[in-house]
Amino acid sequence: MIQGEVLSFDAVKGYGFIAPDDDGPDVFLHVNDIVGDRAQVRPGVIVEYVPEEGAKGPKASQVRALGDDLDVRRPAGRAVERPDGEVDVLSPREFEDAITEMLLRAEPMLTGSQILHLRGRLGTMARGYGWVED
To answer: Domain CSD, which positions (predicted)?
Structure first.
């Protein structure tokens, strides 16, 4: 089993990507390969999985959520690359939702105004890296 961080996961489309701990290429994640509670698999969650070679590149099977690891950091400027070579870019709403959730899990005592301030600063940085649509 290998561990990695879920970079993206769209429950409606049924797929996403994992960044393996060994800094290898991102790994495709399909909803049918999740073992256990599928609701636990979301961006920022650490998972363990069995690596396989899929038709379009690295693929995860037997994926099991281990929990959140707020200390895991993606290198600056690293976007989520899909097997087709395209890069996922978040909408402003998706980014705000993800950042708000992360801040609340990391520091539940933050005030609303603190969250809005931090979210704004992070949003400016994310747009500069091209992680969020303008």
So the answer is: 1-65
Question: What are the residue ranges of helices labelled H in the chain?
Answer: 92-106, 112-129
Structure tokens at 70: 């707020």
pLDDT digits (tens, 9 = 90+) for 89-120: 788 888 888 888 888 877 888 898 999 999 98
For residue 90, the 8-state DSSP code is B
Residues in the chain: 134
What global pTM score does this model have? Answer: 0.53
Q: Answer whether 104's CB lies under 8 Å from 64's CB.
A: no
Q: What does the DSSP assignment read for 99-118? A: HHHHHHHH-TT--HHHHHHH
